[in-house]
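Follow-up to my post from last week.
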Amino acid sequence: MEKRVTFKGIWLPLLLVLPQILITAIFFFYPAGQAIWQSLFIPDPFGLSMQWVGLGNFEYLLSDRYYRASFVTTAVFSILVTVVSMGVALYLAILADRLIKGSGTYRTLLIWPYAVAPAVAGVLWLFMFNTRVGVVTWYLGLLGYDWNHVLNEGEAMGLVVVASAWGRISYNFLFFLAGLQAIPKSVIEAAAIDGAHFWTRFRTIVWPLLSPTTFFLLVVNIIYAFFETFGVIHTITSGGPQQATTILVYKVYSDGFVGQDLGSSAAQSVILLFIVSILTVVQFKFIERRVHY
Amino acid sequence: MATLTLNNVKKSFGKTDVIHGVSIDVQDGEFIVIVGPSGCGKSTLLRMVAGLETITDGEVQIGGRRVNEEEPMARDIAMVFQNYALYPHMSVFDNMAYGLKIAKVPRSEIEERVAQAAKLLQLEPYLQRKPRELSGGQRQRVAMGRAIVRKPAVFLFDEPLSNLDAKLRVQMRLEIRALQRELGVTALYVTHDQVEAMTMADRMIVMNGGIADQIGKPLEVYANPATEFVAGFIGSPPTNFMTGALLGRSAETKIGVRPEHITISDADRLKARVTYCEALGAETLVHLMVADGSKITVRQDASLPLPEEGTEVGLTWADADEMNFDATGKRI
Ligand SMILES: Nc1ncnc2c1ncn2[C@@H]1O[C@H](COP(=O)(O)OP(=O)(O)OP(=O)(O)O)[C@@H](O)[C@H]1O
Ligand SMILES: [Mg+2]
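User reply:
Got it. Predicted complex:
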């Protein structure tokens, strides 16, 4: 039975949630409000006055070829990061689930990358793939492959995807492993007796029973790829070459802070805000419903 | 339908030996119950037959064919698990049809066989439900249904009734037995409940710490236990054990007498003090304590007079009802 404490009156409960409300207000509502406000103006070149343009910033953005290209880049990037990090994590989780001995060590080692900050992870991968001194670049050179992510758009995308996905594997792995271990062993054994080999068992029993976990991770990873990969991209490619790795979040930064187009940058933030709200609603709506049993 | 042979089957997990060599020839259509206390290796033995555990040593044959190296699906067996192990995301119909679908049985035949099983098990109204929408007894039936639709050569049951309440357990016990007779399938049934073993088995294997202490028909085992363990485990209330010293015999031996074979009388072999009486209606259990502190239970007809609690009485029994065991627990 769940124990519930009931408060009389409104002041004590209000006081107790006040710190959280303050933090949310100062660090979320205030800047969000400011972004919405700023998105309706264009500041003059000297930043002395602002001119009301209504939805002008949005209209301009949506007709901007580069902004629309950035949408596609973001979609490609997010899908790749999600698929790679979840795919690898699921594979490792299946292996770890079958291990009886030594799975503790295996698990601990796999959790480490999670503790590495995205910017640091970015630098790490950058060093390995540096066009002049990178170890991997050198080996690839020996194999006759000329790695240059500074010039090659596909290679740049590949590198930021791998660097971003790498840090997520630990997180996904933990959830997948927990999900796999929550499936009763006898259910798998029953399927084996019923004639299902490993792959059939996975397809018809394990995967459906794992689907709540998978769906949860899917949303969480997309959100991650959208919003938390800034550090990786900033350190490795700075959005280049030719904007090939400029995802929406990075564009907010480069247009606003580098290009000093604050109105457009604010409008982009508002669009992102809108996207993340939709993702969150989807997550809450489905996660409750899609539980299979 | 097939015979099942275990030939000196052994199992070790790492360095721990769990099964020390069990042999039995099971006839076609026979119902064998493996009974023993918790941890004696019943499940392990069953799982070796199923192919869910490797066989460390010895041989398992199904229908005269060695199956040691075969995968579970190749052994032509079906198993009912203690927790039923139903597929939680599938309907009752799909649970039962799963094995048939994998075996690529034609759709019409699958429907026919599942319908047949559902009828037999009175599951027809529930075919579209998910397992979580069923009661414990119904889930149990689905697990049975899943086993019978595949028409296996051997049924394996691992304590299938232990999650049911007492009344349902008695009912399902009869149903399982009736079903198995009707289908004529060889069955291996694990339980720790000696009443289940006595009532269901054609023959039973009494397991004790990884050893089959005795294999035989229930009444034979009851009347003629091969070891002290079997005498103590089979029968309720359990056999009374007395040291040789208490009866003025060799200190090495132990003497066992069943509660219903002892009478309270004046022509006494042994003096004992009555601690308390349990009147159960048709019969009465009289609990007593003897000089060396060990306890004795006497089961007597309710028509006999109740001894006063706290008084000293004499106990007697026929020589033929005595079971003598040596220091290692073997019957002499
Ligand atoms: N995978 C395993 N690794 C090591 N030891 C095991 C393993 N499985 C079972 N054992 C040991 O083997 C012995 C027999 O276990 P088993 O499950 O067969 O007992 P059981 O007779 O079925 O008991 P219960 O009535 O409690 O189900 C136990 O002592 C158990 O600790
Ligand atoms: Mg068991």
